[in-house]
Specification:
Layout lengths: L61 H16 L4 H15 L27 H5 L1 H9 L10 H4 L8 H9 L5 H5 L1 H11 L9
Length: 200
């Protein structure tokens, strides 16, 4: 552990370089870029939070904010707007609390959306690569065989976001997605105007 973990990130455990053979974050103080065109988005990883007491949009740390902004940036980069971003955000909130998980915490799942290589979402590295994971979730990737948003619900804007998320994810707890719609709407309103579409 480093002294950097005395920040708000101290509630989360970072994987150090070499521990379990997993890649470490280069900095616990990474902040979300305001413009995706000017800065590189990171691929840092964090372990699962110690509790599941509830997601608080106003208590997000820098990593969660960065990932929320990146989901918005990639979604708008594909020409999709608030409704698609809302579905992606509620899914990442429920599945990972907006953390990019390196270790497999549920079977072979990993990454922002807890996608599983064994069910066609790509390789171990694909599901943990944030852009590839978002692309796969949206249904605009070439590496994933699983149906994403655009395949599962082409008319997704006409559906409740939680229902659409469940069509993509097939969760054992489908009710959880709809519960996070207010948080996702808040994130969109808070950050969408400050983040340029990501098209790399």
């Amino acid at each position: 552990m480093t002294s950097a973990l005395t920040s708000p990130l101290s509630r989360r455990m970072l994987f150090a370089t070499g521990v379990l053979g997993l890649a470490a974050a280069t900095s616990a103080a990474t902040t979300a870029p305001a413009s995706a065109a000017e800065e590189e988005w990171t691929e840092e990883f964090m372990t699962r939070p110690e509790t599941r007491e509830g997601f608080a949009v106003d208590a997000m740390d820098d990593w969660q904010v960065e990932n929320a902004k990146f989901i918005i940036a990639v979604t708008t980069g594909h020409g999709l707007g608030e409704e698609a971003a809302t579905v992606a955000l509620i899914t990442a909130i429920v599945e990972s609390w907006l953390y990019n998980y390196e270790p497999a915490v549920d079977a072979d799942s990993g990454g922002l959306f807890q996608q599983r290589p064994s069910t066609g979402w790509g390789t171990y590295d694909d599901v943990r690569h944030k852009q590839l994971a978002i692309d796969a979730f949206l249904g605009v990737s070439t590496h994933s065989l699983a149906p994403g948003l655009l395949q599962a619900a082409p008319d997704f804007a006409q559906w409740e976001p939680g229902t659409v998320a469940q069509l993509v994810q097939g969760s054992a707890h489908p009710e959880r997605y709809g519960q996070q719609v207010p948080a996702a709407r808040t994130l969109w309103e808070r950050y969408a105007d400050d983040v340029e579409p990501y098209t790399a």
